[in-house]
Amino acid sequence: MTSPVDPVEGGKAVEEPVPVDRRRGWAIDTTPLRNPHYRRLFWGVAATMLGQQMTLVAVPFQVYALTGSSLLVGVTSIVALVPLIVFGLLGGAIADAMDRRRLILITSVGAAVTSALLAAQSLLPGGGNLVVLWILTACVSGFAAVNQPTRSAVIPAIVGPAGVPAANALAMTVRQAGVIVGPLLAGVLIGMGELFLTYLVDALGFLVAALLLRGLPSLPPHGVEGPLRLRAAVRGVGEGFAFLRTQPVLLMTFVVDIVAMMFAWPQAVFPELSETRYAESPNSLGWLFAGVSIGALVMGLTSGWVSRVDRQGAVVLAAIAVWGVAIIGFGLAPTLWLAVLCLAVAGAGDMVSAVLRSSMLQLAAPDDMRGRMQGVFIVVVAGGPRLGDLRAGAIASAASVSVAMVSGGVVVVVAMAVVALVVPSFWLFRASRSAAEARPGSPAPESGEDRPGTA
């Protein structure tokens, strides 16, 4: 029996998995970092995350400083969301139609240039220009919408099917570290009057990422040769949705996340809680905003077990149910420390769900569809919380924060039970069988075995 071939190294056998030390069973699995190509990808993510999170703080700060209007701060969020949706879908199709290494480099350089222009506009007379700021914010969002799904789509080709969950856990953990450290550092720099430097860190991060990613091998999708045909890529968006309709397992990875975010995303009620229920607690707003990310980071650092999960669909449903229960607890929490603890538990559940859902997409989708599926993933991840903010804010205003959070958490828990009953292929999805079916020449499962649905 021949060893499986590494698609990146082009003929070299993939290393056999190393037995897991029981003492390290809970520690994050760093095995993918032994792969030099994945190390470049990982440090590229790390280089960009800090600056991206700093920019996410700097842009609304600058808009409010220029206009004094919270409404225009909200409009800025929509300005960023529209290109994220458009280019997230189109970028995924482009990633399935050209060399993905080249696309990552183009978008990384484009994001670096745009972030540098953001830094330059902050030096304009009057502290900047709102229209210029909106245009550049839309451009940054568009580049990120293409860059992120492309980087996710290349992971299976670089680390192989067995390494996908661990690689995702590593990437998402460093993202969560950026989510915590980036805003704190941005706050310090902005407080010192260094808005220019805040944007410049983002530009330098993308530049470093581009230099690192230059060392990757060519990564064309399977069966794709020749130059990019934009018209074909646009048609590919429709083909991606047509494909998704035939794949219940893949479709449900998006549905369950939309349900979790739309009904139980808590961020919209943080300002009200900081001014009312937790008004006596110091820095309550900061702790509330940090709560979910703290839990996600801790889970990421102890995610060794996640990379070995085989029943991924079942664990995703359980993790999202944990998210729902934790949000119920958050809605009822009488003290700040208990509220932050509940948010941290919710963040841990969301981290497990995100790692496994991304892995399911990368393993169950064929290589020539991975870019489009990751594009949809980015749109869902970005759009779900915004819908959740709208729902939570409306119910909290009409009734109370507790009603908004408890009702949403209950809906999430019930919905996960319904999915398990109505879509058994999702509940029964196994990573090992999906990877075996995706491997050319692998035998089909024997009759009587549980199959991971039509995916």
Describe it.
The structure is a single chain. α3 (100-121) packs antiparallel against α4 and α11 packs across α13. The radius of gyration is 22 Å and the shape is globular. Helices cover 72% and strands 0% of the residues. 50% of the residues are buried. The chain has 17 helices and no strands. It is mostly helical and 455 residues long. Residues 1-24 and 438-455 have low confidence and may be disordered.
What labels would you give this structure?
455 residues, mainly alpha, 0% strand, disordered N terminus
Question: How do the helices and strands line up, and which of them pair or pack?
Answer:
Layout: H1 36-67, H2 70-95, H3 100-121, H4 130-153, H5 155-159, H6 164-191, H7 195-213, H8 230-245, H9 248-264, H10 270-275, H11 284-301, H12 312-332, H13 336-364, H14 370-398, H15 401-422, H16 424-427, H17 431-438
